[in-house]
Amino acid sequence: MDALTILDAMPLSAAGEPEDRAAIERTLTDANAFDLLYRKYVADVYRYCYRRLGDREAAEDLTSHIFMQAYAALPTLGTKPFRPWLFSIARNALIDRYRRRELPTTSLDMAAEQHDTNPSPEAHALDREGVDAIHALFGQLSERDRQVVELRLAGLTGAEIAQAMQCSHAVVRTAQHRAFVKIRALLERTGQEGTSPSKGTWQ
After folding, report:
1. pLDDT tens-digit map of 127-178
2. What is the SS3 assignment for 102?
3. 110 in any annotated domain
4. Which domain, by its residues, includes 157?
């Protein structure tokens, strides 16, 4: 199975917004209720940070920082869906730390050599079948396109990515298509082209 087939085959995970909303309402009166949201999303946020940083300690520290920010800002969430809002915080935290040079800028190739000890089924499939190829290709994408694909790998839908990046769904679809075309072209050059992706996966 080639890298594009693996990327395309990854299922979109369910956000569970009604459950999130119930936990948020409880957290506003009982701080301990935030633990439900933390347990639900901590692995996804950690993997998102780890894929970008390639350093376990840095990813753990940033994950803790992201959830502290989310907890502090929770009263401002309003009616916005929690998951894309949380990943918006994560994305901005990564950008901010890189700008201030507070985190190691480990290359994507080096990050691909390290392994999460508790991967999701999606991440496990990537590790087994094509994570090296995918991460190597990410370095060839523009910053926006790479962020879109990284959020896609975190399990967000196109609409949720748009919310997290504060842009339109059309912009996300365009970035996804551009990234897909770029990755396929690079794979063709290295003789790794696989079957075409199924329609709808990148919506």
Report:
1. 444 455 666 777 788 888 888 888 888 888 889 999 999 899 999 999 888 8
2. coil
3. yes
4. 3-189
Q: Per the domain annotation, does 202 fall within a domain?
A: no
| Nearest alpha-carbon partner for 44 in 14, 8, 76 | 14
The answer to whether 66 and 93 have CB atoms below 8 angstroms apart is yes
Element (H, E) at 178: helix 169-189
Whether 5 shows a pLDDT value over 60: the answer reads no
Q: What single letter denotes the amino acid at residue 81?
A: P
What residue spans of 2-153 are helical by DSSP H? 3-9, 17-27, 34-53, 56-73, 82-99, 108-112, 121-129, 131-138, 143-153
CATH number at residue 53: 1.10.1740.10
199, part of any domain = no
* Distance in angstroms between the alpha carbons of the first and the last residue of the chain: 22
Report the domain count for the chain: 1
Q: What confidence tens digit (pLDDT) does each residue in 27-61 have? A: 988 989 999 999 999 999 999 998 888 788 999 99
Distance CA 97, CA 201 (A): 31
Take residue 10 and report the two structure tokens written for it: 């990854």
Rg, the chain, Cα only: 17
pTM given for the model: 0.68
135, part of any domain: yes
For 116-130, give one letter per residue: b (16+ CB within 10 A) or e.
beebbebbebbeebb
Hey, what are 26's tokens?
A: 């409880």
